[in-house]
Amino acid sequence: MKTDQEKNNPVVLSRRSFVQSSAATVAGLVLGFHLPGNPMRRAEAFAAGASAEKDAQGAKEANLNTWLRIAPDGIITIYVARSEMGQGIFTAMPMLVAEELEADWSKIRVEPAPSGVEFNYSGHPIEVTGGSQSIRSTWEILQRIGATARHLLITAAAQQWGVPPESCHAEQGHILHKASGRKAGFGELSTLAAALPASAIPKEPKLKTAAEYKIVGKPHKRLDTPAKVSGQPIFGIDVVVPDMLYAAVRHSPVFGGECSNFEELARSMPAGATLVKSTGAVLVVAGSWFTAKTLAGGLEVKWSKGATTGVSSESIEKKLRTAANGKKNPVAATKGEPDKALGKAKTKLEAEYSTPFLAHTPMEPLNCTAHVKPDGIELWVGTQSHTLTKIVVSSVTKVPQEQIVVHTTYLGGGFGRRAESDVVLQAVEASKAVGKPVKLIWSREEDVQHDFYRPASLVKFKAGLGEDGLPVALTASIASPSIMKRWTQFGGVGKNGIDGTTIEGLADFPYECPNQHVQAAIVDTGVPVGFWRSVGSSHNAFYVESFIDELAHAAKQDPYKFRRALLEKSKPRFVKVLDTVARMSGWETPAPEGRYRGIAIAESFGSIVAEVAEVSVSADGRPAVHKVWVAIDCGRYVNPDTIVAQMEGGVVYGLSAALRGQITLRNGRVEQSNFHDYSMLAPHEMPEVAVEIVESGEAPGGVGEPGTPPIAPAVTNAIFAATGKRLRTLPISNHKLTGGKPS
Amino acid sequence: MAQTLKVNGKEVTVEAEPGTPLLWVLREKLGLLGTKFGCGQGLCGACTVHINGAAVRSCLLPLVAVSGEVTTIEGLSSDNSHPAQRAWIEADAPQCGYCQSGQIMSCAALLKAKAKPTEADISAAMTNLCRCGTYGRIRKAVQIAVKLNSEGEV
């Protein structure tokens, strides 16, 4: 059996090192080449429909990349330098390569790319798997990788047969010469192709048009499923390094507290166990994780005061409300004369909405295996950013990046939590202290109580309706802790004092309304916050889509038709998505007895998703979500089955939060601790989910996150239809509902 | 303390604190890493194994309390040939995949107990949590597994 180390460290040579060594070292084609242009900028241009060439001028070349390997037996291994956390990119990204390569899909294998800047798609020093952008930002790059490999194989075949390359073509893993009927498999040609000079690599390989696609756009089963049903040790938590010890963490219950009796506690450790001081935490290193965890749990740690000492959910809510009531907060968007228009409006509405902190709780508890050696640091971790991991570890330890190796494993869920490096730094500290490799695993309790949470936020809405019932003015004032404040690498807080994540899905209000004003205030609470699946849209879709439902009700109009009328002029893609979900759900026909429907639509991460939830409320006030219909326009797409899966998953993730997800604070401490009080949807609560993709042919949009935002408002709008009660705060479990029809 | 166990058909002697949960013995002492740690409180089912064929959550079960033959996902088959594994592949159930060993073990135990489970039997047996939201596909996979299992008997 291969060790994990071997598995996570496949033999990969760049073309350069391959050419320098000999064909005997690794048989077959190991393809690496320069990608001209800055792919990140090019991806943006691509998304905007511009040609890549426009951007090529002046752009620097990316490093030499190793993208795929074709073995003599025809097996094609595609290296993916993005993280697979369930979202399906280890299938979709190879599909794009295989398409252009004209490969036989059954011969395709996928492996995580080893760490190193040469594996960046973006050319940017930080490569992150997040923001639902893997496919969007690599589509053309992956096409070019496949097309380049195909070109080299054709060149090799043509040379071997003494025919012009133009007379050969690739098909299903073979190169064919029609005139003579000659045919050779990719595997037979791979060694010859590898020996071609670098000049054989085409600058602009010919790419297929969408009409020529055979793989892209057709449902494909995931390449990682066999490994995931066999119990193979593919996750970070499964890593085994010889001579490894185990560590458990115990954090200060109050954020930012420090251990003040460390020396005393360190002396109390039994033989074979070591206590390590970390920022806001202590780590216990021992021979087994259970021992380490038991020892950590038994410590009588004295903690100093921290950032949230004395803070409670109530005090945070007050702070948010005070900030949202501010008259001169930074302005995110404005048009017309909203105050004047509000004054004149026939009907006026005001509402306050708020949502709580939320934890990510990926199923695989956070972990990292670190080995701090005299000549560098080796890390094994399921991270959403191997490059960021390296940068952060280097900046803290002062070990040069060249001496840090990051082995990215499969992630047992990420949802934004694994973009953080806290667990990595702790593992490094533990390994450094004991001089051995250490696998640090967080308990679920530590995970729930020490996350970088989805920020709690609060918004104040005002709206005015005209004689015709249509909105004439809308203002929104939101207050939230800032995620970007900590993420200066990605631009931080804007110059206008606004955190862009706070207003996504709010400032870009899609509905027709002549007078608008959106302002946003940053409120520090001491609670760490971070990216949570769909980020700002996770709360803003609830706010906007609930309030628009209130406007529809005030205007005495059908919620679907009201939305449609306000989108008809300028948002044709929204209208199509809305119409699709209305048709799917039979919106215009009565719901079954005792069932009620709610609708919501939101654009996020380049995709537009509308959802209808069919809900009942029992006589004793318990809501149940029976069916969810999802329509998505994500532009051009790769694997429709992945899109369906991500919509199902996005709905469940948002539904868990909507129904009962909340992280609350008392005395500066998180009150929840495990799945009994921070609980996700259980199997028996799973609604039937139907998904339809709306074909638009537009630039590709994301799919990992956009399924999440509309579900909360779709459900609460359905609860309004069922009970007449408008839920303006989440989770739903905080509200007392009564069954039956609205009076 | 040394204790002898029968795991996946083999007798093994392990040295561990008697209070150590079976989960950690399997993972750290026996290198059977397919069984997962999820919550440590028996709430999620990621750690599901079989003891004498019945589904048990191994994260709370102390080593000393283990009596009977233990089967882990690695013991189900060496080549994904178990009906549950084949069904999971057919339904393409996993996303991140972390909970799926436990889900498959729950399904395998159900198939052992009832060759023709009712929908209610399936609901009662399949209670493991999945953060990715693959419940719909897991349900489909269980139905496929029931079919494959009965075909296998013929």
Q: What are its keywords?
A:
heterodimer; A: 743 residues; alpha+beta; Aldehyde Oxidoreductase, domain 4; seven-stranded mixed sheet; five-stranded mixed sheet; B: 154 residues; 6 helices; 40% helix
Describe the fold and architecture:
The complex is a heterodimer of chains A (743) and B (154). Chain A has 743 residues and is an alpha+beta fold. Chain A has 3 domains: 4-220, Aldehyde oxidase/xanthine dehydrogenase, molybdopterin binding domain (Aldehyde Oxidoreductase, domain 4); 236-305 and 366-441, Aldehyde oxidase/xanthine dehydrogenase, molybdopterin binding domain (Aldehyde Oxidoreductase, domain 4), CATH 3.30.365.10; 314-357 and 453-734, Aldehyde oxidase/xanthine dehydrogenase, molybdopterin binding domain (Aldehyde Oxidoreductase, domain 4), CATH 3.30.365. Chain A is 30% helix and 21% strand. Chain A has 21 helices and 25 strands. A 7-stranded mixed beta sheet of chain A has the order 9-10-8-16-13-14-15. Chain A has a 5-stranded mixed beta sheet with strand order 11-19-18-17-12, with helices on both faces. In chain A, helix 20 (640-660) crosses helix 21 (711-723). Chain A is globular, with a radius of gyration of 27 Å. Chain B has helices at residues 22-29, 73-76, 83-91, 100-113, 119-125, 135-153; strands at residues 2-7, 10-15, 48-51, 54-57, 69-71. Chain B contains 6 helices and 5 strands; from the N terminus they run ββαβββααααα. Chain B has a 5-stranded mixed beta sheet with strand order 2-1-5-3-4, sandwiched between helices. The termini of chain B are far apart. By secondary structure, chain B is an alpha+beta fold. The relative contact order of chain B is 0.16. Chains A and B meet through helix 8, helix 10 and helix 20 of A and helix 2, helix 3, helix 4 and helix 6 of B.
